[in-house]
Amino acid sequence: MTKADLLQRIIDTLSFDLDVAQRAAQTAYEAATAEENIAENKYDTLGLEASYLATGQARRMEEIRQARAAYQQLLLRDYDPQRGIQVSNLVTLEAENGTCQQLFLGPEGAGLKIGQGAQLVTVITPRSPLGQRLIGKVEEDEVSLVLGGVPQNYSILKVL
């Protein structure tokens, strides 16, 4: 999968997620404003709970919308060893146990998983602990971090 293909799949996934979030927000809004959910006493909180849910869904929609816009404007750059790893680079890491993983360093959308099996690519951002350590590194560098009290070491095998 090329980086251009990956970028399009990220945008498509975010568009799908936005559509799902919009429908969920609409459903929550309808529940919050439904006449049958008007509180009859101080213990009747169904309408209030639905309004909290609608607010949360609206926030989630905005986050997805901003992430999608960031990817729609993203310029894919080739890896430059002089600058090291930057946003829009596709990085292949090898863990100490020999397992490999592909990471796309993107502006938003951390945690998105695109593809499956050997083609699985996980999106991370420069704000993540691993993303922070990858910025500026070059192929064959080592990256170490501690997550959940467990030290993890990786070798950078390839950067596109």
Automatic annotation (TrEMBL):
Gene3D superfamilies: Transcription elongation factor, GreA/GreB, C-terminal domain. The keyword Ligase does not apply. SUPFAM superfamilies: FKBP-like (SSF54534). GO terms for molecular function: DNA binding; translation elongation factor activity. Keywords: Elongation factor, Protein biosynthesis. The keyword Protein biosynthesis applies. GO terms for biological process: regulation of DNA-templated transcription elongation. This is Transcription elongation factor GreAB. It comes from Pseudomonas donghuensis. The lineage of its organism: Bacteria, Pseudomonadati, Pseudomonadota, Gammaproteobacteria, Pseudomonadales.
